[in-house]
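Hello,

Following up on my earlier ticket. Below are the two sequence lines again, exactly as submitted.
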Amino acid sequence: MKETAGTTEALERLRDAEMTPGICYVCPWTCPTEVYTRKGEIVYVRGNTRASTKGSRCVKGEASHVLAKDDNRLKHPMRRVGPSRFERITWDEALTQIARKLTGIKATYGPEAVAYLWHVDPNSVFAQLFLTECYGTPNYYGHTSACEQDRRLAALTVLGHVFPVHDYENAKFIMLLGINMLGANQNLFESRGLLAAVAKGARLVVVDPAFTATAEKASEWIPIAPGTDGALLFAMAHVIVQDKLYDEAFCRQWTHGFDEFCRHVVARGYTPEWAAGITDVPADKIRRLAREFATTRPAMLETFKGLGNYANGLDASRVVYILDALTGQVDGPGNLILKDWAPLQPPLTIPEARKTKPGKPPLHVAMGYPLAPDLPTQLLPKAILEGTPYPVKALFFQCTNPVMSEPNTALYRKAVQALELSVAIDTYFSETAAECEFVLPEASFYERAEIRQSLAMPPEAIICVPALAAYHEARPVYDIVRGLAEKMGYGDLFRWNSWEEWGRRIIKDLPTDLDTLKKTGFWSGELTYHKYTRTGFATPTGKIELMSEAFAKHGYNALPEYRDRQVIPDEAYPFQLINSKFEMHCNLTTQNNPILLRIRGENWAELNTSDAARLGIRDGDRIEVASPQAAVTIKAKVRAGIRPGVVCVRHGHGFGHWQGIAKGRGTHINPILGTNVNPISGGIGYNECKVRIRKVSG
Amino acid sequence: MGTRGWLFDIGKCTGCHACEVACATWNATGAVSWRQIVKIETGVYPNVGTRNLSMPCLHCDHAPCLQACPVAAITKRDDGVVLVDQAKCVGCMFCFWACPFGVPQFGAEGKMSKCTFCADRPAELPRACEEVCPTKAILSGEMHELEALAARSGGERVGGPAGPAMFVIR
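Thanks for your patience. The regenerated structure is below:
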């Protein structure tokens, strides 16, 4: 491999350009970058060559420089004056009116009636500090329930870690269930490590109803029956327990509930024969997988969003981590890594005397989901429309588009319309913005500053230095919040001459300084393994919890159990709908990108060759996909690499409201989905949908 | 200095198009792409397989495009890199018919353009496609070095009378 580190100056000379370290925020993986600009224009972008990305970029990140010049971006604040009608207003008018409404809502309903939602969270720590500490609402939330909510709660419950990462490169056996590491979910150093491991002869087993980009590279693809991964995992645990393939010394020292879990899987009869009937994976294959996993070192079992796309995904995800623990395969080389974080501080401190303490519990607790790591957003319309569990009257949407990205889009639209105050902060005009009262243009990641954690294996801090001047009137969230704070009597707490002032506060505990960071783009600490031997695990018992004390305390079953998914296909709706993302798109930011649209102009629904032949559907036909709730038409993709009886809709297109080049391309599937959430995590079951399909035209 | 070319690891390519976009950005290729990405799924369920291909110009030893060009717009540098002089190109597309790999591209102005091996990048720098590739499936270098690397993983040089300057690991 050619060394890319140290070639920055050469590229600067070749393009007469200046390199500015950045953070790509096209998706939540936040890869560190090098942005090359000349005379205020981007001429090239690559991954930070010294950080873990080693120069790499994903396709959507590499194409994202188009943002900087896209004429379809939001240019100035707007206020809604009628259905689909907006008028331009000044920042001062917008902030004054929003502040006045916030003051009124607080007086009438209490501060808890205000909530803030984000998908990606650049600088939203400023909004968090202002809203949760000054204004006094506990309701500051992200998008996790639409993403890896089950995986996150499982990792927190079992391992006491919010977001394990992966040392693929050193693994010799890797089994991935419902995670397409080489497709849409590219943590770039992990993609490289995974294929390096495969090249060195590691066994890669991919469990997924679709033959994904990761399955392409696997030693074995297991096209499991959708939503039944939990049964496969429990049966693997059964084999490991019966054959005593666990690492008993590790389990006795580092796990809680070892004996109880072993007795539980046997008593429940979670045998390979039982699982075979559910999963469509033969019992002897399950036995072989369990033995291979338990006897190969180092090994790793992992999931992400796939299991959580069903309402039974939480306990299935817990068993993923329980299996890693039973075999002692945690936080070592070739294992899941319970990463250390860089010692970053908040950009500013709110004095105790100026804080407002919320009078009500956070929404997720009041909704009856005390363990949910993020808001069960499918229940938000109920809070808005019915005042249950308590009224929500105002919402901020930062770079999030729930009117499009949540199931039940019609209900969500109605809910946003019913708010007394609704504010969209985004780079583009979203379906949600179209229903909001105020639309505020956000600076893109080429035009704003930020310092944050990276998702590399060692503790790592990354910095985004603004590479370009502001786009029209767009502002970073820190400036928007500062403006709001000034209008509401907190201006003295949100005051700085330049972003470097709060930047220095964030990194005050790092063994580096801001000038160095602004040149290199990142600070990386030492990668250490088996950190639990010094610190234990961040669970109630300090151990890996095979049996959860937190679950028991809240009246849930302390031990995981297998349950069927909620929606099962039947005669009228014979297909299971599943969802998957394209690697070309994430959220709204990529929708209007001409480079990405040239590569993939529209999305499609994939179905198996045999199903297509039976229904007279040919590749490229338009088909109707109908659930009991609604129907949409979409292009059909006929392929061998999908389990029969399954329709897989790929995401990334079908955004329709706004006037960009994305308009009218492809189909969004969420209007046909109903509300199905996990009863403990509140994670959204996007795959809990049965459909029928028919050809509409050739 | 020996002639230069590619080592492409099919086993590592995921068909993600990042190389194509990096190439288009570094080289400002406008409406055309100098890398063609192909994903082919084969087999019958459940025994399926995929081949991903990311195709640049292969800078052939005996470049058929160069031989076919009636106005001598195509030349081959000492390091093996095949370049087209757009000022001389008349847009006749003979190169397109001659190329066994469909490499030459024709934009709105009708002139041929194609991968220049990032002509302005010194040899010690990676090509744009190579440096952004998430899985490091693309490697550029001198052919004798690449041959040794390819041999270690059972790779072979792409065959044919044109002598394409690319080794492939399957």
